[in-house]
Structure formats: C-alpha cells, structure tokens
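Lab notebook, bench 4. The sequencing result for the construct came back, and we need a structural model before the next group meeting so we can plan mutations. Quick request posted to the team channel:

Model the 3D structure of this chain.
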Amino acid sequence: MDSKIRDLDNTTPDILEIYELLLECANKEVEHVVMEVSSHALDMRRVEGLEYDYAVFTNLTQDHLDYHKTFDNYLEAKQKLFKMLRKGGKSIVNIDDKYSSFFIDDNTLTYGFDSGTYQITNYHIKNHITHFSVNNDEYNIKLLGKHNVYNMLNVIIVLKEEGLELEMMKKVIEELVSPPGRMDIIHHQDKLAIVDYAHTPDAVLKIINAVREFAQDKIITIIGCGGNRDKTKRPLMAQVATELSDYVILTSDNPRFEDADEIICDMVNGLDNNNYEIESNREKAIKKGIQKINNNDILLVLGKGHETYQIIKDKKIDFDDKKIILDNL
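Done. Here's the predicted structure in token form:
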C-alpha cells in the first residue's frame, strides 16, 4: 500500500470525510484503523454510526471550555465514545486519573502506576531512554517521561489484545520517536532545547516534570496562550510554568483576533511568582531564551509544537519555533 499523509483541518474530520477515508482504507484492504476522536467531534456527532473495538481513556483535564462551557459538559462529551463500543468491544482506562470511574464498566481493561490490569513498575530514565516494566515484561522506549509511558501502554495493550507477538512488539516500539513538535529535542554542544505542543495547564505540568527528571541544571520555559480560546486556563498555565521552571518568558502563541499583550495580562493576573519576564514578540522571546541558557541548561519552547505558522487575526504567518531555535543556537 502506498504511504499517504493528508493534512486535516480538525483532529477528527467531519462525518463525510471520515466515511470517505474509511472507504479508501477498506478499498486498500486496511485491516485496522486508529483514530483520535475529539470531544468536539463527539458533541457534533461527526462519528455518528461508527462502532469501535477499543475505546481508550488517558486523562481528563481542563481544556476546550470555550466550546463546552462547563467541565461537566466536557466530561459528558468524552463519555459518548465509550457508548459506541461494538458488542464485545473493550474500554482501556487509565486508573490513575481521578475521573477514571466515569469510564469503567465490566469490559474495561485498566492500567496505571498504582494498580490496574496492566501495572507499570520499574520506571526510570537513563541516557535519554525510558525504561519500564508492565506485568513483568520489560520495555525500553525513546520517548521520555511518565506521560509517554501512559501513552505507550495504550499501544501495548491494544497490540497484546490483538495477539501481536511480544518480541516483535518490543522491537517496533523501541524504534518509535516523537512526532515533530512533541518532546522534540534539539542538541547543540552541551545545550539542549525542546519544542513541545503543550498548551493546557496539565500538559505544561507534565512536560516540565518529565524534563525535570533528566535535567542537569536550569529549565528556562517560553510559553504563551492562544487567542479566542478558553481564557480561564491562562493564569493556570503561567502559574504552573513559573512554579516548575527556574525562569519563564511569557510571550504570544496564536493570538488570532485578540491582542497578544492582553492575553499575557490574563496570564499574569494573580500570579504569585516573579521568576519571569514578558516579551510578546515570540521570535525575540525565543532568542532571549537561547541567550539565557548555559551548558547543561534546558530551553523549553511550549505551545505551538509542530506548527509552522502563527495565526494573527485570520492570517497564517510563517513561523516555526524549531527553525528559529536552530538558526540561533
């Protein structure tokens, strides 16, 4: 089968495009399809009529309240996926998450560090490799941090349930690398920069904690918040970033139709910490961050990840965090 990569406007396309994609897969004799189903898609009925063999719940944190309005609405939208399992289908649930009970039933496989059908033990990072065991099977992956162990375990569980041979599975996952913009590590001599898409309080917390596990010295974080999105997460993101980083530069993300300076004002509103500065020009902020890191420090550039543009009003302006870093390190 020919490889095919297609840009999509949404995490989960509209229902007609989904059915066209599935029909194309069927015509090419594809036997398995993995898809991310967003809460927006579930609420808008973009996956109406589909049935799933597996439904996976990783975690639930504050996000998308500009659309869902309340957290309860967001939770209810997520639950809809688990009502779309076909007969004999299984849900796979992260039991460590405090909302796991809303997704567990008699056909649930659970996983986590504390307990679960699949329990994670012996977790540690060495030489930028994550090592962990699951039910006495040992795994080594190039993806770093606990959040990536959670994500990888979903893959392991589905493949095991589908009967893939263990040694083959280990070999495959050991070769997996982060997609562009997700814990995307840039080495330069003894300096390290990392680009990541983290754009919620929980994602910011997880990425900085993951980096803290292997950081030798300071973590300097560059972060902004998108415009015309949930405003309530802005001060939370700034609070998490300043609490967990040694120093933070607050900047713009995709301001859209909002003023970038006003977005940053929302971020610093009520902020307890003072280990930060403001530079609303994102390129200048990245250059400042690069100037501040010494050997063994880590520069974290968060929020845009793989995006190669910045959205200002209704225009997409060429802008690539990783390219700017590479040009200035």
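The mean pLDDT is 92.
Will bring this to the meeting.
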